[in-house]
Every structure is written in C-alpha cells, then in structure tokens.
Amino acid sequence: MHPIQLFQKFFYKLFLPALCLSGIKVFAQQHSKLVNEPVDISGDFRDFSNTLFFADSLASFNPETGSGQLKWKRNEAFSAHNFNNSMISYKRSFSNEFPAIEYAQDPVLPFSVEFTSARTIRVRANTSMQKTVSENSLMLVKEPVQDKSWKYSKINGGHLYTGAYGSVTIFENPWKIEIRDKTGKLLTQTRSKADGKSSYTPNLPFSFVRRASDYSRSIAAVFSMSPDEKIFGCGESFTKLDKNGQKIVLWTHDPNGVETQTMYKPIPFYLSSRGYGMFMHTSSPITCDFGATYGESNAMQIGDENLDLFVFLGEPKDILGAYTDLTGKPEMPPLWSFGLWMSRITYFSEQDGRNVADKLRKNRIPSDVIHFDTGWFETDWRCDYKFSPSRFRDPAGMIGDLKKQGFHTSLWQLPYFVPKNDLFPEIVEKGLAVKNANGTLPYEDAVLDFSNPNTIKWYEDKIGGLLKLGVSAIKVDFGEAAPLSGVYASGRTGFYEHNLYPLRYNKIVSELTKKLTGDRIIWARSTWAGSQRYPIHWGGDAETTDKGMQAQLRGGLSLGLSGFTFWSHDIGGFTMKTPEDLYRRWLPMGVLASHTRTHGQAPKEPWEYGEDFQIYFRKAVELKYKLMPYIYAQSKIASEKGLPMLRALFVEFPNDPGSWLVDNQYMFGSDILVAPFFETAKSRSVYLPNGTWIDYQTKKVYEGGWHDIESGELEVIMLVREGAVLAQVKVAQSTGEIDWKNMELVSFAGKSDNATVKICLPADNLVKEVLLVKKGNKLVISKDPFERKINWILK
C-alpha cells in the first residue's frame, strides 16, 4: 500500500471519528485574537490544508425550472516560487478521502437560476448534498415568487433567458453565467480558472472551499469587473464611497469611531455603475474583495455553505427599489421625529431634562425630543430599566410635563448586563442569555439571546413598561457583539447569529413601540439586511474632527446606497467637546438630513457656546422646521420607493459621469444639493450636475460643472435645482405646532412654463401633487388636489 494511502486509512479510521465524537467544530476563520474581531474568511481560500472546488461544467439542466447539477473540479492551493519570489497559486488535485470509492473526486451538486421579478435574478448553488432546513428568512419580507415574464431560448452550448431589462446566459462547458442589460451590453460574468490565463498572478475563480479543520464549506461567488467600474453600498462604510479596490469584511462590529474599515452596519448588498446590483442572502460573515486582490475580479467570499444570490438590473433607483421590494421598505416615522433631538452624554436627572427643555423654549430654539442617555439609572451605564429614585422623583410627571411643552422623551438602553447589575442573576437563571457549548456565558457580561422567545417576552416587559409610562422612543444601542462562540436558542452558532443579532434587536423594539405607541420608531446603531424596515439609525460615535465629519457623511451615503431611507448622526461628533468652528460647519449637515440630533460629550446645548453661537444654532434649526413640508413629503416618497433621503448625486443623475465621482456632497431629497464644509473656509469647490442651480441662501445662479462657491449665512452650500418648487411653513417651536393650512410655495422654476410640488400632510400621509403654470411672469396654481383647504402663498 502507498504510504499516503496508509496514512489516510489510519487517519480516517482512528483520528477523525475521535475528533467528531469530541464535538469539536472549529472554523479556520474563528481563530480570533480579540473578542468580536471581524471574521475574514478569505484566508480559507488560500490555506494549503484546505480543498478547493472550482465550478466547471453543467452536468444537467432543466430549462423549465432553471435547475440542474453543476460539476465542481477539485483543486488545491500551493506555494509557487520564481526568482526569489513566492506566491499562492492553485492546481488540480485528487481525492484524499478513504475509502476513495465512497467520495466524489469532482462533486456534482444542485444549482439553479430563477427570476423573481422583471429586474431580479436569483442564483443558487449548494456545496454539498445535505438538504438545508427550510425556514422563513428574517431578512426578506416574504418568500420570493417566480416571475413568468422571462423568455427562454436554447442556444449553441447553453441557455438564454431574456427579460424586459436584460438577459442571462448560462453556458454549459465551461460553465459560465453572463448578465447583460436590455441593449446587450455585458454587465458582468462569472470567472472561471480559464479567465486568469492572461495573468501571471493566480486569482480565485467561482469556487467553494472545504476546510480541513472540520469539513465545513464556504463559497466564493466570483464575477468580473470592468474598466472604470464603480461599486457602492455594503452598509455604513466610512471609507471612500466607491469600493472598487477595497476589501470589505461584512461583520457587525463596534469600530469605536468612524475612521476605520469596520462597521456598525454592514449590509450584504452593493450596486455597480454598470447597471446591476447584488444581494448576498445570508447572515454568515462575508468578505467582499472588489478588485483589491486582483483588479478584474469581484470575489464575494461568503461564509455560508450554500449560495443564495439575488442580482438586480437597472439604474440606481431601480436597483434600490427592487432590493427593498425583497428586503422591505420603511414605514414612515412620526412627524415629531423629524424635529430636533436635544441630547448629550448625559443628562443625569429629572432637573437636567426640565432645565434643557425650559431653555430651548425660552431661547426660541425649535425642538421636539429630549433624550436621556446612560445616566437615567441609579448607576451610570448599568441598565436596569429603572429611573434613579434619587435623581428622578417623578418620571411619569416629568414625561407628561415635557409632553405639554411639546417634547417627546427618548431613553437609552443596551442588551448587555454586567455581573453587578441586579438583573444579571435573573437573566442567567432563566436562561435568557446567549450560552457557550458548555451552557455557561461566553463573556463575563450576559448578552440577551433574541432568538429565544422567553428572552423576547422578558425584554418586551421591560421596554413596554417604559413605553406605557409615556416614553416615545428607545435608543437601541450596541448590538454588535453577539458572541461568535455562542450557542443560540435558534440552534445556530454565532457564525450565523452574530450578524442577525441587530436585525432581531431592531425588530423587537420597533414592533413593540409601534404596538404600544402607534409610532414606527427606534434610534438604533447596528443593523443587517432588512433593518431598514425599522427606522431610525444613526452613525455611531464619530470622532470630533474634520475627518470624522467627512467619514460620517460617507457612511451615511453608503448606508443610503444599501437600502436605508432614514439616517442621522451626532452633530459635532461624539468623542469630546466639539470645537465651535467644527460645530458651526457640522450643524447644517445635521439639519439637512432626515433626522437631526445633537449628541456626544458635553456640552452640546447651544447656549453653552455663547450668544452668537446660539443665534446661529437657532437659524440653522429654524431652516429645518421651515422646510418641513418639503422634508416630510420627500421622506414619504423615498420610503415608498426604497430611496435614501441623503443620497449620492448619481442616484438623481445616473447619466452624469461626474456625479459618480463625488462623495463629499449629497442630494437632500430630489431637489436640494448640499455641500458641507469639512474644514475652515469661506468657499469650497462644488460639482453641479448638468442644468441650472440656484443658491438657496444667496440666490446666485450656476450652471452645471465645477464651481468655487462661497458660503452663505449658514456655513454650508445649499443649491436648488431649476424647476423645483419648495414648500415651506412658518417656523414653529415644535412639529406639533406647525400650521399646515398656510404654506409658502417658493419657486425656483426659472424659465420653466410649469412646475409641480409634492405635498404630504401628516394627517393622512398621502402624497399629492400641486401643479403650477406660468401666467405672465408669475406661476399660478392650476391644479390643487387639496381643494383650497390650504392657503397657498406663492413666492
């Protein structure tokens, strides 16, 4: 017997059963040095001890169902050497199992292509013959149904499906999928081993890996990238907006700031400037290598044993709409949430909250929310869901009095419990926390297991008591540290539950708040795919620096390109007292967002910076309240279409090449372009898409292209595109006091003969369109769906 065969015989007969019986299951990527270190699985595809299988050819295919069998050829990684240089390469390998007759050298496994809408293609592939347990996905709003509009044609060597917006070709040998738009332009295609022949650099093709450590598998969906292709999305990423050339690990993580590559809100979705997008339907860790390792390859290395990939066709708005049709669109948050949230870390007493509310009203600064952060418990940060009896004499009375002043109350909490917390023994004894394989806690803290129905009920009782007391919103903080080593009530480990944790967390609080208050609202930090159904999310603990401000905007734009309509951030940054100059520049960016909150290290209150700053602060916040009809209507439209309120320029202008290059400006809704100041200056360079633009503050007119534009009274560039009409109201001290029956229509129509303005009254949440036509030199209303119930003032 050959020595290798002898080794195989004894290894598989003696040692492997012992490992299996011991219950050891160690993913190679779980060898983390730090607790909750992001899991990057890409190294498993380069590990010499693992076996790789490259997608090779179709063994069978049924065109009617789109399903068949895909053959995978066995390969292995090895170290190649030349001229004192080493690199990892791949070569054909052969079965190392014993008895060899029992195991496939080159497995043939299930594969399918389906169509779930006129724009949506679903590609699935298995890496083993084991049947997966069918269960409802938390990420999807419903199980997709088959779309019958796609037409099939048999072609030489393959199969062609043609739809209204593009086509999919499946080649049999070698196996390949080509995706084209409706004009026939190639958008992307799977990459095989043969596609790398022109390169001396070995690169990974469409494949899966079987780990030597435990025989678990992960799949790499590898597609081509084109010259000048740009990639956007993947969640609230704080790096450059275009992800081409970046390697991104999708693993929920507390980055302790906004200037690193890790994310509070990773989302397994991206869109391309080529006219397609992709959603990786899994909760496992993912490493997206967008041309970082090899320029022509988009390698989505997915921890899941099976591939479930949705591909969307169209322009950015089409893609975001199709993606959110699948994973859900947000319900409109309440009107009051669009006002100013006044906060710091932290108000420690009832008197603190009352004093801030009184000063806001006394100084005529519009505001709708007073937020109590970590200090409303007896011990700061020790969450026990009880107001400190020594500092909050009458919480219900305080909440009621604030409500009379036009304020809603928001409270902070978290799902982690330190051993000194009075609730800790109860949580452990009742089995409400995530456990280890041995039944103990993975961490010193108890982390609530939101896959456990008993935990959900216990948690709802705690949160529900606060909502019944009159609290309007719960801050759903943290949620990024679900233990990787944990065993969850769902029956799964942290490998699949870690990324789902924020989605479960968001869902529980959002649905309970909706049930008890009627409002769909939370204030959350962490997310996964589907969390956009549960607004609102904010950008985490930004550094109090110019770079922190820039990164915060990039994160918001990136999250918006990942299916999220509503987003906010801590104005001025979180980590330390905000310098006044930075506060002045950051404030307009915070006001010109769907939701506006001042929060972070004290002080945040404008009067703490002096009279001049308080006047400036008031004017900035008044701008938002004045624009509330525009903001509310645009938010309603965006929520129905799955679009972000804070959107990258190319979302509105996909045919303008320059718009794809800009990540330091944004569109606020469809009509207002905003260019913040990220450093002290009187002017900045601004890119304007093709057309005419009018400065909201100075009324100066600009044509498309690059301009150096001076700031107005507020330190921001704010331009309205020609043809727009902005609806405005008289400034009120809270959204509850806004007079919706008297509305200004401010025209930026320019030379246009007609214009429209969309209005959505909070009373019915229906968007209606008012039509204006030019009569002489003025616009007059020609169609009023409100039938004169609103007094229009044309300007």
From TrEMBL:
Transmembrane segments: none annotated. Residues 330-633 form the Glycoside hydrolase family 31 TIM barrel domain. CDD domains: GH31_N, GH31_xylosidase_YicI. It comes from Dyadobacter psychrotolerans. This is Alpha-xylosidase. Residues 110-289 form the Glycoside hydrolase family 31 N-terminal domain. It comes from the Bacteria. InterPro entries: Gal_mutarotase_sf_dom (IPR011013), GH (IPR017853), Glyco_hydro_31_C (IPR048395), Glyco_hydro_31_N_dom (IPR025887), Glyco_hydro_31_TIM (IPR000322), Glyco_hydro_b (IPR013780). Residues 642-726 form the Glycosyl hydrolase family 31 C-terminal domain. One of its GO terms (biological process) is carbohydrate metabolic process. One of its GO terms (molecular function) is carbohydrate binding. Keywords: Glycosidase, Hydrolase. Belongs to the glycosyl hydrolase 31 family.
